[in-house]
Predict the structure.
Amino acid sequence: MIKTALAITVLSLTVTACSTTRHCERALPYQAAEMATIVTSVDGISPPSSPSALRIPELSGEPQTYALEVAEPGDDGETRVRCLDMPPAMPAVPAAQPAAGV
């Protein structure tokens, strides 16, 4: 029983670790969706106007990217993709200096 559980755990960790492409590096089907036509009323009938109706704002400006190419920490000129769902790396903290006279 323990061997089976261990084998399943190792297999699942191995399979999930094989993914090298983050979802923001490729186009997803929803990104190709087009706007549906606006529903209009027929002659003689007007839809009620609701102040609480949800309205989709028009696109303004340039589309935003979901991934950024950032320079790798070394000086070798390599870049890597950073997705918006990943926080930026924390800056390095300098080592604490020992107090004088202690």
Notes: Residues 2-17 form the longest helix (16 residues).
